[in-house]
């Protein structure tokens, strides 16, 4: 079986020819006895480790400790082999390469990897060793990195299919590689029965397993940083002592001080309010307000948690995520989602609050006119119209007058109460504006929902009463209809069973069925009227609830980063083929005559067995696909509506026909509140300031 070797080579190394006689560091990922992936992280001058075996050992140990556990279980960071620069591809002729003895001599150079360097190589990969050559072709003005030979399980191999893949080293804040969507979740519900070939397919070991390779590519930058930190030749950056660095540090310190002071002010207000409600004198106010202002309390608790914990969110940093760029990107966006949502909410709240403060009188007059028109033109006129002959339907006059008079009296009593409370509307508008300016638009919107719910309490009560009458009337008619059919409902089995009723039961049922059926149109028109009115009010509240959930769930940080740099949101990889032909090791420059620039837009490029005697060489560039703005937003919005389905909507619609009330809340997902925090004000201010300064330093020097 012909062996295949894929070499993942950094573009920064492939584009330079300054280093010669260097060492390659990275990972050997072995999938089978005939397939091997070699992931090169960086190269280093061989002379720097001539007397530094202990330093090299420390580099390998420290790098392996920082790697994710999933990568450590499948591959180990180690010394891969040698890297030489050759000015002519014909330096290694086909005759010399065909002799295995040449690879053990001075032309190979592998004999130098002994002593301290050999001790640094782990046992799991000691059977592998590569020797790569960077060729510069003067006649064609081309440069290629090719495999000179490879020690494969103790055997020197030069005749194998080689695929050299050049990639840009992933860097935090710049780009990385990923095989799938970031928020894609695996299927948890499996079918009951699966074909046998599906199980066989899952048990097969894939020939070109890419997960480990992509993970090692994303960890290559961490390996390079670890090498630079421990290298004796690394000099301290001079920009730390420059004037620009001092100005930048001073600006960040001022910003951290201002934001820390504002956050501490919010923290003190929330803590004083929380302590005030804990007194027994205000306990009844607390209980009553939690029942009347339920939505406001829920959103206030969420906002309080965000204000209290935002410095902790910024400072949260998983040590294992530092080694992998993909994990670090996800962790950073998750940290930034909290404060970005809070900032956008506060900006919207200030815009709405300032608009209400400057136009309070106009808003109050509009509310008065709307309440007057709604009460007189819709509620009272509608009830009077239903007491007559609505749409030409002949209703029961006595029942219509009773239902209409009860409704009119309830509407009149509630309107009179609101007339005496009209003077508080002005202060109510000011309270909504102050809540928006202080805590954001979500708190003011939740307060508006509670105000609308309290202001339309009479409509809710009338709708509840008429629903109770209508539902019992429908249930009674359904039971009497089953009596005439000789059927009986079996609630245990949820089915209709045959049953023999007596003559007296049929007579009583007939006497009850007739008046209930004749009174049903009168009850139905009142039920339809108040159902439409109540549903309209509930729809307005649901719309505000939807806006609150969208404000919380929208990933503002991801949107802003996507607009600036889409490379931070990869979705799958593909290969841009640069060269595909015979191995230049044996065919000199003939392989370049068949050079192509084909673009393969597949997630995985699989090399098939080619029945040729000569080994093949393929050189390609690793490229990424990127997520669109819709693919970024869809998982977050889908999480909001996780509790809503088509079946629930159909059930609600059927419930309305049978006399059940429509739900007044959508039950959308909100950020979970966290436990209350009690720390001194000075410590909280220091925590806020240090979190901003540390995040600025990490963001500035991580690259």
From TrEMBL:
Q: Which residues cross the membrane?
A: 241-259, 265-285, 339-358, 402-420, 427-449, 461-484, 505-530, 542-564
Sorted alphabetically, the keyword list is: Membrane, Transmembrane, Transmembrane helix
One of the GO BP terms on file: GPI anchor biosynthetic process
Q: Which Gene Ontology terms of cellular component type are present? A: membrane
On whether Transmembrane helix is a keyword of this UniProt record, the answer is yes
Q: Which Pfam families match?
A: Gpi1
Name of the protein in its database record: Uncharacterized protein
Species of origin reads: Arabis alpina (Alpine rock-cress)
Q: What is the lineage of its organism?
A: Eukaryota, Viridiplantae, Streptophyta, Embryophyta, Tracheophyta
């Amino acid at each position: 079986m012909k062996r295949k070797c894929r070499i993942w080579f950094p573009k920064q190394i492939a584009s330079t020819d300054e280093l010669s006689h260097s060492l390659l560091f990275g990972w050997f990922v072995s999938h089978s006895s005939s397939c091997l992936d070699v992931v090169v992280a960086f190269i280093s001058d061989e002379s720097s480790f001539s007397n530094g075996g202990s330093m090299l050992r420390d580099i390998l140990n420290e790098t392996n400790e920082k790697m994710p556990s999933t990568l450590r279980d499948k591959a180990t960071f180690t010394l891969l082999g040698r890297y030489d620069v050759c000015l002519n591809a014909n330096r290694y002729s086909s005759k010399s390469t065909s002799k295995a003895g040449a690879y053990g001599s001075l032309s190979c150079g592998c004999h130098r990897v002994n002593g301290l360097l050999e001790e640094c190589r782990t046992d799991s990969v000691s059977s592998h060793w590569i020797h790569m050559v960077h060729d510069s072709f003067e006649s064609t003005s081309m440069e290629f990195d090719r495999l000179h030979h490879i020690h494969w399980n103790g055997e020197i191999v030069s005749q194998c299919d080689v695929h050299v893949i050049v990639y840009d080293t992933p860097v935090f804040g710049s780009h990385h590689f990923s095989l799938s969507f970031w928020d894609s979740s695996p299927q948890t519900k499996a079918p009951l029965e699966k074909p046998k070939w599906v199980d066989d397919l899952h048990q097969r070991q894939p020939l070109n397993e890419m997960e480990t390779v992509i993970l090692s590519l994303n960890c290559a930058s961490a390996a390079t940083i670890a090498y630079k930190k421990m290298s004796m030749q690394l000099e301290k950056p001079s920009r730390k002592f420059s004037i620009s660095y001092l100005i930048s540090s001073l600006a960040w310190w001022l910003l951290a001080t201002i934001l820390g002071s504002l956050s501490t002010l919010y923290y003190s207000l929330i803590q004083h309010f929380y302590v005030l409600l804990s007194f027994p004198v205000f306990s009844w106010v607390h209980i009553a307000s939690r029942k009347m202002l339920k939505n406001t309390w829920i959103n206030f608790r969420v906002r309080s948690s965000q204000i209290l914990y935002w410095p902790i969110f910024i400072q949260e940093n998983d040590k294992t995520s530092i080694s992998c760029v993909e994990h670090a990107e996800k962790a950073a966006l998750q940290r930034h989602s909290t404060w970005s949502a809070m900032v956008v909410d506060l900006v919207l709240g200030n815009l709405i609050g300032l608009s209400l403060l400057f136009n309070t009188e106009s808003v109050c007059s509009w509310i008065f006119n709307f309440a007057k028109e709604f009460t007189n033109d819709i509620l009272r006129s509608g009830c009077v119209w239903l007491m007559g002959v609505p749409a030409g339907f002949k209703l029961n006059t006595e029942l219509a007058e009773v239902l209409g008079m009860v409704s009119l009296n309830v509407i009149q009593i509630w309107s009179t109460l609101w007339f005496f409370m009209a003077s508080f509307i002005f202060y109510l508008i000011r309270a909504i504006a102050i809540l928006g300016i202080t805590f954001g638009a979500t708190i003011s919107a939740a307060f508006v929902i509670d105000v609308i719910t309290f202001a339309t309490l009479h409509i809710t009560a009338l709708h509840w009463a008429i629903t109770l009458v209508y539902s019992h009337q429908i249930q009674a008619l359904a039971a009497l209809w089953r009596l005439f059919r000789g059927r009986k409902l079996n609630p245990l089995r949820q089915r209709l069973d045959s049953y023999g009723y007596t003559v007296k039961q049929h007579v009583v049922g007939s006497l009850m069925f007739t008046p209930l059926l004749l009174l049903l149109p009168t009850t139905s028109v009142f039920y339809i009227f108040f159902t439409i009115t109540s549903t309209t009010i509930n729809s307005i509240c649901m719309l505000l609830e939807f806006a609150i959930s969208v404000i919380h769930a929208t990933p503002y940080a991801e949107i802003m980063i996507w607009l600036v740099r889409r490379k931070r949101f990869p979705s799958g990889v593909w290969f841009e083929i640069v060269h595909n032909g015979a191995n230049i090791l044996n065919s000199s420059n003939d392989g370049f005559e068949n050079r192509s620039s084909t673009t393969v837009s597949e997630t995985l490029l699989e090399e098939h067995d080619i029945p040729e005697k000569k080994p093949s060489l393929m050189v390609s560039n690793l490229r990424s696909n990127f997520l669109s703005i819709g693919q970024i937003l869809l998982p977050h919005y889908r999480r909001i509506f996780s509790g809503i389905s088509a079946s629930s909507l159909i059930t609600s619609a059927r419930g309305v026909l049978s006399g059940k009330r429509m739900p007044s809340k959508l039950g959308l997902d909100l950020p979970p509140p966290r436990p209350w925090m009690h720390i001194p004000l000075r410590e909280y201010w220091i925590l806020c300031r240090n979190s901003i300064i540390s995040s600025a330093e990490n963001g500035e020097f991580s690259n």
